[in-house]
Amino acid sequence: MKYADWPLSAPVNITWEITRHCNLKCIHCLSDSSVESPCELTFNECRGIVDQLAALKVFEINFGGGEPLLKDYFLPLLRYIHEKGIVTCVSTNGTVLNSETVRFFSGNPLVNVQVSLDGATPEVNDAIRGEGTFRKIISGIGLLYGKDIPLSVNTVVTSLNYHQLDRLKEMAASYGARLRVSRFRPSGRARQSWEALKLEPAQLQELSSWLSGDPSILTGDSFFSISQDGRRQLGLDMCGAARMTACIDPAGDVYPCAFMQSDEFRGGSLREKSFKDIWNNAPAFLRFRRLEPSACRSCPRFDKCRGGCPAVAYFLTRDLDSPDPECLMSWNPEATGAG
Amino acid sequence: MPFRLADGVQVRRESWGLLFYRQPQHKLSFVRSGDWLQPAHFDGTWTLETIADDVSRRTGAPPETLARALPRLASRLLKNGVISDEIR
């Protein structure tokens, strides 16, 4: 049995989408963010949720959205979370950072910051994140640089930017940051941009080799379907949804993963149930823990990846029992290094 | 010699043992110790000998098994930066 299969009393980390409000309108946004949702949690409700997560000893909360820094109570909420000793990671688009925020982050041992940048040039980044955003993002990263803030630059890898990954890594390093690459998945607005931005098999193979050759690149999420065996030692190598992680949306609904925010995967509302109850008993969570695509069971790598990312499979086929369509094994088994 | 959690490390109890989280690396360490070990054993006041005594008293585990297992575990956790023998 893999470590990730050992039943946990609570998630290791939570993805918390604190608002749908965003000043950008990126064409690949996983949550289709733009304006604030009408039913977003109040500060007091958030504090109650934090109390629950602290009691369960959740180690880490990763904030995204929307743009979390646009939430009026975001810094006070972070302060409250830090009083509980919980580590936080703030994913920001980098365009609304100001001196107050940077001062708050600076030297804070419980803060990690991740800035999204989707190209090493304005032409590529702005085609995805919007006109003029490259300049604003670089300016935001500049504000964070040298301020004793653990910093990473996150790039969602698409057909537009995959050829710039080396340059993005160099840019990140020039600001004392590491490059983190995330997988492009067809949820939210990415469902509309999927065909235009998805990587072709040859590009996926190139990406797989590039990742394999550079262990310094962070891969925070589900590249395990294209990970070669050497890279598998570097971190979680199977889907952690409902096993090690969960997602809270701006209204307090809980899902197994940020990419699976549709009604059929909703575990419950924190306005009605406790987090512990949802984690332990929600049918959607129990279903995810048993998930093993039948088509993958005879694969020699099945014990290593358990079928890859269910979000990609589900949104492309509407069938959770389907294998990850971008799995390396399906089009180049030799490249996996599985021998 | 007492052990404590290394800086930036947190631990919680699970049904199968202890789950350690190392903040600097965002990494986990799983220790399948069942009921033997408690998070409090790594608060800096317990030695391997006092942990062994406590486990033996609570669970009836044979002292000779503990005398073999605990030093090996401590060595692994020390090597991985999960615990520290440095006094703060």
Task: Write structural notes for this entry.
With 339 residues, chain A is α/β, with parallel strands linked by helices. Chain A contains 13 helices and 9 strands. Chain A has helices spanning 43-55, 74-83, 99-105, 122-129, 133-144, 165-174, 190-197, 201-212, 275-281, 283-289, 302-305, 310-317, 328-331; strands spanning 13-17, 60-64, 87-92, 111-116, 151-157, 178-183, 245-248, 253-255, 268-269. A 9-stranded mixed beta sheet of chain A has the order 6-5-4-3-2-1-7-8-9. In chain A, helix 6 links the parallel strand 5 and strand 6. Chain A starts with 12 loop residues before the first strand and ends in an 8-residue tail after the last helix. The model of chain A has no long low-confidence stretch (mean pLDDT 90). By secondary structure, chain B is an alpha+beta fold. Helices cover 33% and strands 32% of the residues of chain B. Chain B contains 2 helices and 6 strands; from the N terminus they run βββββααβ. In chain B, the strands form 2 sheets. In chain B, strands 5-1-6 form a 3-stranded antiparallel beta sheet. The model of chain B has no long low-confidence stretch (mean pLDDT 94). The A-B interface holds A 3, 6-10, 12, 57, 59-60, 85, 87, 109, 235 and B 8, 10, 12-16, 19, 21, 23, 26-28, 30, 32.
Gap between N and C termini of chain B: 13 Å
Helix content of chain A: 25-40%
- Radius of gyration of chain B equals 12 Å
Helix content of chain B: 25-40%
Shape estimate of chain A? globular
Gyration radius of chain A (Cα, Å) is 19 Å
User: What's the multimeric state?
Assistant: heterodimer
Count up the helices of chain A.
13
Please write the string of helix (H) and strand (E) elements of chain A.
Answer: EHEHEHEHHEHEHHEEEHHHHH
The number of strands of chain A is 9
Biggest interface and residues each:
A-B, 14 and 15 residues
Q: Please tally the β strands of chain B and state the result.
A: 6
Q: Which descriptor suits the 3D outline of chain B?
A: globular
Would you identify the regions of chain A where 5 or more consecutive residues have pLDDT less than 50?
Answer: none
Major β-sheet strand ordering of chain A:
6-5-4-3-2-1-7-8-9
Order of helices and strands of chain B: EEEEEHHE
On the 0 to 100 scale, the average pLDDT of chain B is 94
Proportion of strand residues of chain B: 25-35%
Mean pLDDT over all positions of chain A: 90
